């Protein structure tokens, strides 16, 4: 997987996410699986990389990407994803996470409150943004950015004008928190109009990291840090194989057969996007 990661660092890509994972040998309650993946569009290769770390500290980002990463990073609003960590990178943010905070305020179980219509209008605008994004036509990242400026920017401007005006009216705490979160991430939201490589959301990575949650419910924990790191390696291999449309069992059989021989084979020949592997392990 180190070869995949090195190649990935050369791309203008990265989507980051993290999820807790219990390790019995740790003093604290749990560590974390960090997931880094290529974006679905404009990435030469599809890679899913899992990295185990004992903490949720933002310094883990540089462990994954290196100190000099200068591509684009899609992530949610977690404070660990700090510009200070990688000053040469350009950061996007997940509009779905922003939208989710406003949607929660429309839950029928919540007692109606003054300003709830603001949340409704915010959700309506963002829903239209997602709808129009799916219908954009382009053949390159620069064309996509241009299409977004033409068709989406006015809606994003309206969204921020709406919530900025609402904030001046001293909204109740739940709405105020949703607004402040969106305002904190405003600069990152507007990166979509400069960089077509950035998706609007982090859904792709969240789908990739979801199996770790399902496995966690069955296996419950790792005994040691070494076991957690081994888990991360296997998650990386399996999810990268799936992204490259391989039969996972055929691919694992090929890898285990090749790398248990006395002579170590050429690693790059077994990367999941090579012609030979695509032909022999295609799903």
TrEMBL record:
Domain Transposase IS66 central: 7-229
Name of this protein: Transposase IS66 central domain-containing protein
Domain of life: Bacteria
Pfam families membership: DDE_Tnp_IS66
Source organism per UniProt: Limosilactobacillus mucosae (Lactobacillus mucosae)
InterPro entries with a match to the protein in the record: Transposase-related, Transposase_IS66_central
């Amino acid at each position: 997987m180190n070869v995949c990661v090195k190649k990935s660092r050369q791309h203008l890509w990265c989507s980051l996410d993290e999820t807790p994972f219990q390790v019995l040998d740790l003093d604290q309650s749990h560590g974390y699986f960090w997931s880094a993946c290529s974006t679905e569009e404009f990435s030469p290769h599809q890679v899913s990389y899992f990295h185990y770390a004992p903490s949720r500290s933002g310094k883990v980002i540089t462990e994954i990407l290196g100190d000099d990463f200068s591509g684009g990073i899609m992530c949610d609003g977690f404070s660990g994803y700090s510009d200070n960590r990688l000053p040469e990178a350009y950061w996007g943010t997940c509009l779905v996470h922003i939208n989710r905070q406003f949607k929660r305020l429309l839950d029928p179980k919540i007692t109606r409150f003054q300003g709830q219509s603001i949340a409704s209008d915010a959700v309506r605008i963002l829903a239209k943004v997602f709808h129009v994004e799916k219908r954009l036509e382009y053949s390159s990242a620069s064309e996509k950015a241009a299409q977004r400026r033409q068709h989406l920017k006015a809606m994003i401007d309206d969204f921020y004008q709406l919530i900025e005006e609402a904030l001046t009216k001293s909204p109740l705490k739940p709405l105020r928190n949703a607004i402040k979160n969106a305002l904190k991430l405003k600069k990152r939201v507007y990166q979509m109009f400069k960089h077509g490589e950035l998706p609007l959301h982090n859904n792709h990575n969240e789908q990739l990291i979801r199996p770790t949650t399902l496995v966690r419910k069955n296996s419950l924990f790792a005994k040691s840090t070494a076991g957690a790191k081994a888990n991360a390696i296997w998650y990386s291999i399996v999810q990268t194989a799936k992204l490259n449309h391989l039969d996972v069992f055929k691919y694992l059989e090929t890898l285990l057969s090749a790398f248990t021989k006395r002579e170590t084979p050429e690693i790059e020949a077994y990367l999941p996007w090579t012609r030979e592997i695509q032909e022999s392990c295609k799903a």
